[in-house]
Specification:
single chain; about 120 residues; alpha+beta; elongated
């Protein structure tokens, strides 16, 4: 999966997305806008921040943890879909990070079950 900085958003859509982000982030503007090259994701996403660590407690009591390596710190993003009515969030992970949490894919069900890291 590759990400590119957003170029094709209309000027008004970009301003609307930035305003929504700023409203919930202490007046700070978003650092990045992305157009993922992945048909499973929305066409435009606004970065909320970088993802360094993620710990998930499973129903069976186990845990799965993602801790980005030092050379992968800038390659994992938390983003939101400005066009979704609830501003759905997504994790855009590097290949290295996807491999480290691949056991989560079947737990997510549906189209994620057969996802390849």
């Amino acid at each position: 999966m590759s990400l590119s900085h957003s170029k094709s958003l209309s000027h008004s859509k970009k301003n609307e997305a930035k305003a929504r982000y700023k409203e919930f982030h202490w007046g700070c503007m978003p650092l990045r806008e992305f157009e993922p090259d992945d048909n499973r994701l929305p066409k435009r996403l606004i970065e909320i921040g970088l993802l360094f660590d993620l710990k998930i407690k499973l129903f069976d009591g186990g845990t799965i943890e993602l801790l980005a390596s030092d050379n992968d710190l800038n390659n994992n993003h938390v983003v939101f879909d400005m066009d979704h009515k609830y501003h759905r969030m997504y994790l855009i992970l590097s290949k290295e990070s996807r491999k480290s949490i691949k056991e989560l894919f079947p737990l997510a069900g549906k189209r994620h079950t057969n996802y390849q890291a």
